[in-house]
């Protein structure tokens, strides 16, 4: 190319560059169309599989017996992006065969965490009545959905993991530009942008603005409009309420192994063997963001001036305190190792006496 540039007149050099640019745009457009076609095909196949299962369910409905209580259980992990959710979800995939449950990924269009009202109804109906898939572990980037609003008798068990807000934002910033080691060949939305997170903060860029921190609160707050109003105090309080009242357990990325250990003790039907798998398995620390550079103290200080960061930080600290409270009553440390406490309640003075 360099030799051609020397030999060609400037006019032809410009034409050659324009032709090259047009060719690259055409190729990118074709790649985009192929990816969209693949997505449509995957969704069509998924819909076909669902229809087949629902048809079998309809045909066999008259012969069905009620599910055993231990089987009529659904866990929903409405995972927040960039909180080690891929690593944790892969534990569920690795264990589902041995522990005999189904794992289903909730794939929303353009990863939109808010469902339409009609999709909320469909989702609630699927989760509660799709007996062929029970017991089930659902996971996806969707905000909390209150099943009690739909009049169901048996609500799912919610779990989740959150992360320090600034660390999560930094990880997501570089993920959009450089991807990760999970799918290294996949082209990301901001690929080619070499600007560091610090440079973005210094320039007042939109990708690193404090508003981008507003994510973990709305994921826990749910499908109310106020949840997605950036900086809403009501959304923060609703997220806290849901965390305490609607979630079985919420862990933190920084203490993920402890989260896995407590889940195994609380829900062995799903997580039996999870702790050992997390410690020894190859999938325990997947999806490390490439080219990630820690932010400077100046960048952190600038973000921490925002009321949005203060709210997200308050929510994170609230979740961390609650998790540590649960952990303190569930595990003990001995010789540097944590172990789960045995059952410490029993029944006595049972009347009337049995003969």
Describe this structure in words.
Belongs to the sulfotransferase 3 family. The protein has 355 residues and is α/β, with parallel strands linked by helices. The chain folds into 2 domains: 1-59; 67-340, Rossmann fold (3-Layer(aba) Sandwich). Helices cover 50% and strands 9% of the residues. It has helices at residues 2-7, 10-59, 85-99, 117-129, 165-178, 197-203, 216-221, 233-246, 256-266, 268-271, 274-280, 297-304, 307-328, and strands spanning 74-77, 102-105, 136-139, 157-162, 247-252, 331-334, 337-340. The strands form 2 sheets. Strands 2-3-1-4-5 form a 5-stranded parallel β-sheet. Strands 6-7 form a two-stranded antiparallel ribbon. Helix 6 (197-203) packs across helix 12 (297-304), helix 8 (233-246) runs parallel beside helix 13 and helix 9 packs antiparallel against helix 11 (274-280). The longest helix has 50 residues, at 10-59. It starts with a helix and ends in a 15-residue tail after the last strand. The model has no long low-confidence stretch (mean pLDDT 86).
**Gyration radius over CA:** 25 Å
How many separate helices?
13
Number of domains: 2
Name the overall outline: globular
N-to-C series of helices and strands: HHEHEHEEHHHHEHHHHHEE
Helix content: 40-55%
Poorly predicted parts: none
Strand order of the largest sheet: 2-3-1-4-5
| CATH hierarchy: architecture of the largest domain | 3-Layer(aba) Sandwich
CATH class of the largest domain: Alpha Beta
Q: Write down the overall mean pLDDT.
A: 86
**Proportion in β-strands:** 5-15%
**C-alpha end-to-end distance:** 97 Å
CATH superfamily of the largest domain, called what?
P-loop containing nucleotide triphosphate hydrolases
CATH topology of the largest domain: Rossmann fold
Structural class: alpha/beta
